[in-house]
Amino acid sequence: MRHRFIPQMSLGAIPIPDITFNLSSRHELVPILIAIQYLYVHCKDTLDKILGMIAADISTCENPNRGCVGLSHWENLVMASLRQGCDFDFDNLADSASYHKKVRQIMGLSDWDDKTYRRSTIQDNISKLQPETLQAISELVVSLGHQLCQDPLKRVRGDSFVLKKNVHYPTDSNLICDGIRKLVEISKKIADEFDLSGWRQHDYLKCKAKRTLRKLTSIARRRQPDRDIQMRAAYVDLLEQADRIIQRAVETINAVDAQVKAEIRTISHYWESYLTELHYFIGGTEYACQLARRRVFEDESIPNTDKAFSLFEPDTELINRGKTPYPIEFGHRVLIIQDSAGFIIHSQEMGIGFTDEKIIVDVMKNLQARYNGRIQAASFDKGFWKPTNLKELTKHIPLVVLPKKGRLGEADKERESGEEFKKIRKWHPGVESAIHALGAGSGMKVCRDKGPTGYRRYVAMATLGRNLHTLGKILIEKERKRQKQDSLLEFVIG
């Protein structure tokens, strides 16, 4: 059973419109909570839309009056905003929701209320929010912010950065050891459930693979004259271990199938998922072994398209940007478009193999259509350059500030020497500040969520948190000016 808000305010709870904040505080929590309060007090229609979208994702029961009492839709909104807006992990978020005075007040709880929040409860609820829902909520927040600013869409700027996956540096030996570890752990769990033998030495098998990995690492660091011979011998040992464990895992699957057929029973969904995972890691480990054989024993140079960079995040992409301090990164490119008010009006994960110049035309065409042609100027760096891009973008945007790569012709020199071009070009580097804020303040350095959907949710949640932060700063500045004018008026009257 879900509710839009906490059904009954507890004794001593402060009404949300009456909550006060320290406007001189520099903590990122304050502007986000002020923006959420603004939604509740002044934007009832927008808030109804937002809570309706959250309800569509969270509510799994057809009858809203049935089921356990979970988090209200308002609590989900507050926690989803704070998670990336303040760069909280789920433990920090649970602690803040349980013990931080202002966070509890904004959710409708009083100092006397003993309700606490478990990390797993928050994680289960937030993980149900779809990336598309979070993007739609962020767009609504941006539209509210635009009502408080003057011509925020007159000019926009865009750039991309890499949001890394939470994976270790991929080497052949690391991937093989990851596969061995998971095969042993899953097979042992299945063997215990179905009373199968063959995995009594499961701890020893994992330790043996780990010792071989350490040996390989040590040989690679020593750089002795016979290093290649030692490396091949160590790889032979590791590959033999992997082959034996893969064979045992296959025998375990066959034994489970035989037992199920003999007893004429069905496997529960829980154990079916473990068998599916075991199938996956068998295939992944075999592929990692195949790559190692090609590289070590056949001296083959493996192209990036054939490489596997993680068994846990198989969609990970190797991105060689050549920039210090991390010239090579493992993750995906993320494109952001920022307006002159500081709102991120668009963010998206680029697909594998896509770069800046391949998607910018479609993105800006859709943005111009969404905002009814209000974008008058758009600024990008040389990474977005392509002759056709300039031509296509000019059809939709009056002024396109897109520097050309390489040597400039006379027409390009004239175009880039214009006063308006140079003015907006000087304004463009501010987008790096937005990227830094996303990384340092919204956790956009490394994605902590798993899977493709989790990655897109992470990007959308960070964008929502940053836009709420920007809206809160605008509201704080307006309130400071109002207080200053009131104090000045009192001084004049007095």
Question: In summary, what is this structure?
Answer:
The chain is built from 17 helices and 7 strands.
Secondary-structure topology with pairs:
Blueprint: H1 29-42, H2 44-58, H3 73-85, H4 90-99, H5 101-106, H6 119-126, H7 131-146, E1 155-165, H8 172-194, H9 202-222, H10 227-263, H11 269-297, E2 317-320, E3 328-339, E4 344-349, H12 356-370, E5 377-379, H13 387-396, E6 399-401, H14 410-416, H15 419-427, H16 430-441, E7 446-447, H17 451-493
Helix pairs in contact: 1-3, 1-17, 2-3, 2-7, 3-17, 4-6, 7-17, 8-9, 8-10, 8-11, 9-10, 10-11, 12-13
Question: What's the total number of strands?
Answer: 7
Q: Quick one: CATH class of the largest domain?
A: Alpha Beta
Query: Helix and strand succession?
Result: HHHHHHHEHHHHEEEHEHEHHHEH
Count of the separate structural domains: 3
- Mean model confidence by pLDDT: 91
Q: What structural class do helix, strand and pairing data support?
A: alpha/beta
| Apparent shape | globular
Largest sheet: 7 strands, mixed
Radius of gyration: 28 Å
Beta-sheet strand percentage?
A: 5-15%
CATH topology of the largest domain: Nucleotidyltransferase, domain 5
Helical percent range? 55-70%
Uncertain stretches of 5 or more adjacent residues: none
What is the CATH-assigned architecture of the largest domain? 2-Layer Sandwich
Distance between the termini: 57 Å
Q: Number of DSSP helices?
A: 17
Subunit arrangement of the protein: single chain
